[in-house]
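Dock manganese (II) ion; give full complex structure.
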Amino acid sequence: MNHATPTKRIYEKLLSARRPLLVSHRKPDGDTLGGMMAVYAWLRDQGREAYAFCVDAPSSAYAYFPRIRELQTNPETFHDEAIDMICVFDAGDLQYAGIDALVAAMPKRPFIANFDHHVTNTSFGDANLVVTDASSTAEVVHAFFTANGVEITQAMATCLMTGLLTDTSNFSNPATTVKSLEIASELLLKGVSMRDITRRLMRNKPVAALKLWGLALERLRWDEGRKTATTALFRKDLEEHPVDDEHLEGLSNFLNHILKADVVLVLKETKDGKVKGSYRSAADVDVAELAKAHGGGGHKKAAGFTVAGTIGEHADGWKVVT
Ligand SMILES: [Mn+2]
């Protein structure tokens, strides 16, 4: 029985580990990357060996992160026998992190530390630092550093600020608390430029992407009965305006922020004959349940699915035709 707190246990393990492997969840966002890269910068700045890993390459919007070029996406990273610890950031379970099979294939399961703030976290780690009332995993990592007397450098602060900005939607959504704003002001005192970070995160859309957004706005349809707004992007649209997927990812969030609707659904046809659906809700609707009906899933307020089919019309909007 180990009576040390998870905060202390993880700290001690990190200091004694030979080569910790830090992991961001699939399709990484600013919070999972922010938490991971802050810990990575801390370890590497001390000359310690470590890996930063994600199964998917981060968007080029995060190029300003310190040491982001050192991030590994090759699953063979897991073959390094010196890895004796894995730290997972912002993932409810190993599957969401995208590493369940990679961990299962390791000859010896390393010590796993779990940094997260999701209520759905399964406490999959050997030490679990899961703070469900934290705004972000960045806030959890900040508390971890503070409790262990780790000095936060400007580089680390840049990572953590990105996580805070991401998960609070630039300090505008309900995750914005006194605590998260206090941490933000502390990070500003480390010399972080919030303006630079928000510019990198927001002002990064090419014209082709906004033309697609324009098509999506033009096609918005309103279902009064369901208080649902739907829109559609067809395969030919994406062929005419080829852009990286990442530039379309903000569309459903954007609509959810400004539309007076209970539910927003963005449908998009893919090259391989499928339809991707992205649900958002700012009201008391569990969109994870709606996504499940199409074989998908996610969070109560943000969920998605991918099904074989095309997009068709019904009286009050757009739908998947299988
Ligand atoms: Mn998060």
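Observed: The chain has a mean pLDDT of 94.
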